[in-house]
Amino acid sequence: MLEGYTQATVAMLIFPGGLFALMAGLLFKGIDRVVVARAQRRVGPPIMQPFYDIIKLSTKEILIPESGNERAFRLAPAIGLAGSLVCAALIPVSGVWNGISGAGDIFVLLYLLGLPAIAFMLGGSASSSPFGALGFSREMIIMFAYEIPLLATLLALSLRAGWQFSLNGIITYQLAHGPFILDPVMIPAFLAYLAFIAGTMGSGLFDIPEAEEEVIEGPVLEYSGPLLALFNLMTALKLFVVLSLGVTLFLPTVIPGGIVTNILLHLVKCLVLMLVSVSLFRASTGRLRIDQAFTFFLKYPSSLAYLSLGLAYILR
Description:
The chain is mainly α.
């Protein structure tokens, strides 16, 4: 039992979560900003800018709104960051890490993936800012919208893998039968997952809760200093988590060459997934209204996910 606790602690603090996931997430955010800038014919910031932002914010003063709820205001970013750290530790890395034994259930991840959004809502409501309240309501609505195709996608994957509810079971099935991204039955679910990534990361069409031109960053408007740095770390970690989960669910592969080779392969696949679902999407689209985004998820990603679920059930 002590060995299990030790592995879980290392997973959440060092690898594949913790320090490794934070560094990878910040690096991916830097690459994302550079790619978007180049696609829009701008110079853009350096790739290391997210690291510089964290260092700078860590030296600044924390300002608490006078009419806000100080306890909830301080607690919100810690809750979101902790949830993302646990998620990162639960997700296996093919050929490297099998996840925390007995805990890597897809429905556990389904609940934990919502903690960053809940943290944004808690922080926005605790700030007493009208922009924070507006961002809170938008975050809640769009969260309800993208959770529907995500749940249907996870059910379709589980059914296709023979009612496997563990990530290791889903990976084992794909290593034996081929990745789901090449399975015609699962391609609609993969497209639905791409939409989920864009929605949960607020990219392009779905940059609604924090729209700078409308609600001036919404839930995080009143945040500053180390608390804002925690939110930035949470966002970077969340980006890596949803990308890593997408690779695990649809494109797990193990190649000869050892642990380092498989880690690099995992990072490359996450990077490609980010370019498709976040960077190029953000660089080439505008922003929907919140009612349009809600309708979009109910119509298209949900329909694609349910299509894969129906086909998987018929061909079970």
